[in-house]
Amino acid sequence: AQRVTQPEKLLSVFKGAPVELKCNYSYSGSPELFWYVQYSRQRLQLLLRHISRESIKGFTADLNKGETSFHLKKPFAQEEDSAMYYCALPSYGGSQGNLIFGKGTKLSVKP
Amino acid sequence: DAGVTQSPTHLIKTRGQQVTLRCSPKSGHDTVSWYQQALGQGPQFIFQYYEEEERQRGNFPDRFSGHQFPNYSSELNVNALLLGDSALYLCASSFVGDTQYFGPGTRLTVL
Fold this sequence. Notes:
The structure holds 2 protein chains of 2 kinds. Chain A is mainly β. Chain A has strands at residues 3-5, 10-14, 19-21, 24-26, 34-38, 45-49, 60-61, 72-74, 83-90, 99-101, 105-110. Chain A is globular, with a radius of gyration of 13 Å. Chain B is mostly beta strands. Chain B has no helices and 11 strands. Chain B has strands at 5-7, 10-13, 19-24, 31-37, 44-50, 53-57, 64-68, 74-78, 87-94, 101-102, 106-110. Chain B is globular. Chain B starts with a strand and ends with a strand. The A-B interface holds A 4, 34, 36, 43-46, 49, 86, 88, 91, 95-104 and B 3-4, 33, 35, 40-45, 48, 56, 58, 90, 92, 96-105.
């Protein structure tokens, strides 16, 4: 069955430190993958998607099919990056399906 | 464009009652998906509506039903409420199942 795993419930780093939020998935094929972010008291919003290869707010994510991972990285964390981060996989692998979410990782960036 | 809107914001019901939640999609979107987010969990897919028909359904009982109207807005109905139905209910809209944009959610509390 398709599954998304985010092994860390909470990740705490200091401002300016590198950050990596882990995401592993189970899907046989070439999936489309997403990272969604939820800032305090705001709605869930798309941060980036694998297919666009964009860098949003300094975050990047690379799909590693061998390790079935899609880790989110940023070289220098900012306090405003503090939020809940969710990795998501469409159920059919492509963007047409419903989304399967991980349980999320809470990122806390300390001053 | 206000984006995806949901009503009401909060709702308190008692066990056995029925509830209706409403969602208006982002302008130009024709597909509406509903998710349940329990405390500390990622969103879980309930069902998706396109062209006024349920296109996909997650692992939720028949007590959960929905509807999509000709203007693409949607309703989620839950019958015979259980304590375990207490959660944040998220609506997401997209164009022909592409990238999903989320609403702010409706917080349902069942006493």
